[in-house]
Design brief:
This is DegT/DnrJ/EryC1/StrS aminotransferase family protein. The protein has 320 residues and is of the alpha/beta class. It has 10 helices and 9 strands. It has 2 domains: 187 residues, Aspartate Aminotransferase, domain 2 (3-Layer(aba) Sandwich), CATH 3.40.640; 107 residues, Aspartate Aminotransferase, domain 1 (Alpha-Beta Complex).
């Protein structure tokens, strides 16, 4: 028991609501590195369209990387042959692939598949796969965090991530000082470039337990559906409305959207881009469309229905 003393932030307490049975690391990259360091595959097959920040976590272990191309459904375009000492990384892009992942690559044993659910916090693990990885930081205001499901004998880290130095951007954003907190946000992100596995911090655990996850999931789903109802006729990307709480709403157009991003930013609408440094760009294909033809629209729990409608008005002005 601790009584008296200085005051803390007065946060609600909802308990552990997501991935309570998973191992908890400081980041999804650390989860991947921890799994690969334990299982030691000779080769890892990954898509060209991938966040480049994961590559050092693979290369440090001397694992050979083999790239594959994506088809229109954001799954491997060609039939892949995976040997027993190899692994296949499947990415649940933006949390939109859902049940398609269960039937993807039927020629590959599930025990050889690593499922990257970093963009799909509310999607359940796929039974029988080698590992499933999550990143709560992409959905929630937390300092650190990554979840790992695996049957491999991955050791628990002895030390936790030091999060107390990386809270400033969360506090500034909560106070409405978004631009003032951006440099602190960048420093916090840089601190997670170190993928040596550490346990999720107690600060992150407490922040996670203060979030009403059912509200987060329902808000994201409702906002996603509201955007889709207005944009489905112009969106060139197939969208499954049965997806639980997606990361964002990807609006694919027929042309490069770089200038549209500039116009959104000028209106203080800050949108992410995924991943313009993809090594397959310049040769066409689905990777080119995903990186250059999509506006990744927010659907997060901070947005009301009225704000979604205001965003739609801006989209009409910017995109025509």
């Amino acid at each position: 028991m601790q009584l008296g003393g200085y005051f803390e932030l007065e946060l609600p307490e909802f308990g552990d609501q997501v991935h309570r049975d998973a191992m908890a690391f400081q980041s999804a990259r650390a989860c991947l590195h921890a799994y690969l360091r334990t299982s030691r595959p000779r080769r890892l097959h990954i898509p060209y369209f991938i966040c480049p920040s994961i590559l050092p976590a693979i290369r440090q272990l001397g694992i050979e990387i083999v790239y594959y191309r994506l088809g229109e459904e954001m799954l491997p375009e060609e039939t892949l042959c995976i040997e027993t000492d190899e692994r296949l990384l499947l990415v649940n892009y933006f949390g939109l692939l859902g049940t398609r992942l269960a039937t993807a690559c039927p020629q590959v044993p599930r025990s050889a598949v690593i499922l990257d659910n970093a963009q799909a916090l509310f999607s359940p693990p796929l039974p029988g796969v080698a590992a499933t990885i999550y990143s709560p930081r992409k959905f929630l205001g937390v300092t650190d965090g990554g979840f790992l499901y695996t049957e491999a004998a991955v050791p628990c880290p002895d030390t936790a991530f030091s999060a107390h130095e990386h809270l400033a951007h969360l506090l500034l954003r909560a106070a409405g000082e978004t631009e003032a907190g951006y440099r602190s946000y960048q420093r916090a992100e840089a601190a997670l470039d170190d993928f040596e596995p550490r346990a999720m911090s107690m600060i992150a655990r407490r922040l996670l337990s203060s979030v009403d996850m059912s509200f987060v999931a329902s808000s994201r789903t409702n906002n996603f559906n509201r955007l889709h109802a207005a944009l489905c006729d112009v969106n060139r990307l197939p969208v499954d409305l049965a997806i639980p709480a997606p990361l964002c709403y990807p609006l694919m157009l027929e042309h490069d959207v770089t200038d549209f991003y500039r116009q959104f930013h000028a209106r203080h609408i800050y949108l992410p881009r995924y991943w313009p440094e993809c090594p397959a760009l310049g040769v066409g294909g689905q990777e080119e469309k995903l990186a250059r033809h999509i506006i990744y629209l927010p659907v997060d729990q901070r947005m009301s229905a009225q704000q979604v409608d205001e965003l739609l008005k801006v989209i009409e002005v910017v995109c025509g």
